[in-house]
Amino acid sequence: MDFGPWLARQLKQSRMNQAELAQRVGMTRAAVSAWITGRATPREETIVKIAEALGTDLGTIHTRTTDTLGGLPVSWAHRPGYADGGRDFGNAAAFAFEADVEVLAREATQNSLDERLDLGQPVRVRYTLHELTGEVLARFRDEIRWDDLLPHYEAAAAQDQKVGRVIAAGLRDMYERDRLVLLRVDDYNASGLTGDDYETGRFAAVVRRQLDSHKSVSGAGGSYGLGKATLWATSRLGLVLMNSTLSEPHEGRTERRLIGRLDLPWREVDGEPWAGPAWFGRPDPDAKDANVTRSWWADEETVERLHLTRESAEPGTSFLVVGAHDVASLVEGTERNDDVEDDDSVHRMHHRLLEALGRNFWAAMTGGGTQRPLLEASVRTLRNGTEIIPEARVDPRVTQPSRTRALQAFLDGTTVERLTESGQVAMTTVPLVVPGRSGQGNGGEHRAVLLVTEADDRDDGKPNRVTTMRGNRMTVKAGWVPGLPVGTDPFQAVLLAGRAAGDGAPFAAEAEAFLRASEPPEHDKWGQTEELRMLYSPSAYRRIAALTNLTNKAVRDLVARPAKKRDAGAERLRRSLAVGGRRMARPTTAAGPPTLEELDARIDDDGAWCVTAEVRIPAGGDSWRPAPVAKLDVRSGPRPVLAWSRLVAVHNCEVVDGTIRFAPGARSATFRGTTDVSTHPVRAVFSGLVVELRTEKGGRA
Hints:
By secondary structure, this protein is α+β, with helices and mostly antiparallel strands. Helices cover 27% and strands 27% of the residues. The protein contains 19 helices and 26 strands. Strands 1, 2, 3, 4, 5, 6, 7, 8, 9, 10, 11 and 12 form a 12-stranded mixed β-sheet that branches. A 5-stranded mixed β-sheet has the order 13-14-17-15-16. A 4-stranded antiparallel β-sheet has the order 18-19-25-22. It is elongated. The protein starts with a helix and ends in a 7-residue tail after the last strand.
């Protein structure tokens, strides 16, 4: 760091102005101003006097890698209670996701991908689980000023609120078992937490604000500013520490910018009310309120004691989740974990992280042709600084072999039009008519890329699925393809839309923006969202339904077996021959229930869902009497059932007492329904819709 900016910083944080320093070192104020602006440099004998004035040594002034700040130690600053008496019993953003390391891996890695710095190189993400016990844990607690935090934790844990109960469980686990699990997320070749402590920028968006996405690219995976909340949600103690290496200097420096943020519910400590969050840093001398801290530039020893040492000076950020836990269910069939009973086992979390990275980011980790992978990811586990599970790099060819083969063939330019041999990848394009903004015409026809290949039996998961994604190459959804002919060979399909379809794909940018607006906070599907409705039109989601239908049709065409032609002479001979004896009747099997084949839905002017459904009826299945049931698509818990205000037959059926009666011999039928708005627990524009068929045959269950 240059001498001038460093000296200005020391004066500010020591609450000393230029005139006071000039008086102490026997110089003029103009001379001090010249040092700070870089127009002049003090002589060695003057530097000795400056060191005395600042209460530091000559080494600190010459190296300028740390601050002096003898009277301003790192401390916690808690936000005071609201003057109007309002109380927040937790950060609402943290409840948008489960406290699940798989969800954390998806959201945090997506954020790292969005901040990739050198687009010619992959962003490298490393997850480190670190279990602290005994003296190592005691030293870490001392470093984060645990004694200052404990009264706040105890007050929060005593409250009969959800967040309070989680904190109480975290405290019990640490004290009774004498252990604490740290989960560190490091990224390299990323932008880092750049910008001012308070003004608009990456630092303030992550550390100071909620619902501030502040993405640097239009094709970013995140758009709600919620993903960062998974870091705090995964901590039973609501505590995350950060160490960032910046891609652009702040205050003349780039390395070891540290800050900590604590998210607790409202609490009262020693008669004083506190609103919720707190920050771990240097007191800010410029703040109007003395109870404000800001980031600080730490030395290497401090970073090491906080378990935040980065492996290189490459830009990026290290997030340390203190008290990490995993509330998800146990991994099934994992023999290596059978001797561990608790969900917070670092062994179990290690393997769940590996699985989540492989399942969600296999495409981002795949390269081919002239394109390098967008992402490299690995997981390792330590106990008191010693590696107990070696670092494992996620290999997409192992986690998703068939899908990886499909994408690599597209990048290498080795796809074919039809599948004729094992290992081939067939490619076609599927149209997506992108609507114009605010419903004004069309934005153009985008050609999404569809890839199909045979399914590998090892680790691909369920076959006959289409995996969809856009420019960031994170899996959005893997959906089953309906209507496949009997005997279809198992396959995997990949749909690349938006920028993922390639630089030459028409209207890729428009499709990218459209699909991004159609994703909910979880980014796990494309459909109706409030943002899509506001930016485009209430019926814009129909374009996505059309894309899905066309994609499924294209898949069926690519995997269909070619019909074998019979020799005409052999066919005539076959018909002229007969086998003697009585012809045996074919055994009959009970027909299966009808199934919903297609569903078109819209929201009318009254706020009701209006659906048109097509039902596929198997041979002999016309005696079933299904009852359509409308439900709200919610993220967790049972789906609320909506009543129908209108249910009418359209084709090959009739509606009797809320059930569908099919015409004899019909193989398909269509009906329409409108939901009763008075039974909606929330407005339709803020929800999704699921329609199910409750089936009865011949009036019997």
